[in-house]
């Protein structure tokens, strides 16, 4: 018998001073059996950084035609495509062709820096692509089956706190070479 996904209930109160966005989001989020706790929290962080009433999680891992997060217009056009990790250039090209804006979040410092050095010149041709690195060490301490999180975003920092733990995550925008 295959292991099923773990379901989390997340109440996230977001105060984003950069975008002047202040909203409570009640989420039900599945963690794929192959996804570790760190990566799961990275998905929550990316949700907070891009929060919008129309932003939603998709089918998730191992889906070629969908990102892990997206925001669609009322006419079903993809306004925002959000992916994670060291995505191959073919998938990025496809995303940039389908969506108005594409955001990619890397999170494993050593692997990400090697990937970035190999790909930054190729990725410079995509004008609707933004790449960020999340310095999110220790964020998996926030994991609980029912999470009540406060998220404060200001400049390039995000403070994510529960009643037991808090973590400061630095968001670094990676610049492509022209």
Summarize the model shown.
The chain has helices at 37-49, 89-98, 109-123; strands at 6-16, 21-31, 55-57, 69-72, 78-84, 99-106, 129-135, 146-154, 157-161, 166-174. With 178 residues, the protein is α/β, with parallel strands linked by helices.
Give a written overview of the molecule:
The chain starts with 5 loop residues before the first strand and ends with a strand. It contains three helices and ten strands; from the N terminus they run ββαβββαβαββββ. Helix content is 21%, strand content 42%. The model has no long low-confidence stretch (mean pLDDT 92). The chain has helices spanning 37-49, 89-98, 109-123; strands at residues 6-16, 21-31, 55-57, 69-72, 78-84, 99-106, 129-135, 146-154, 157-161, 166-174. The chain has a single domain (6-174), classed as Restriction endonuclease-like alpha-beta roll fold. A hairpin with a 2-residue loop joins strand 8 and strand 9. A ten-stranded mixed beta sheet has the order 2-1-8-9-10-7-6-5-4-3, with helices on both faces. With 178 residues, the chain is an alpha/beta fold.
What's the topology here?
Elements: E1 6-16, E2 21-31, H1 37-49, E3 55-57, E4 69-72, E5 78-84, H2 89-98, E6 99-106, H3 109-123, E7 129-135, E8 146-154, E9 157-161, E10 166-174
Parallel strand pairs: 1-8, 5-6, 6-7
Antiparallel strand pairs: 1-2, 3-4, 4-5, 7-10, 8-9, 9-10
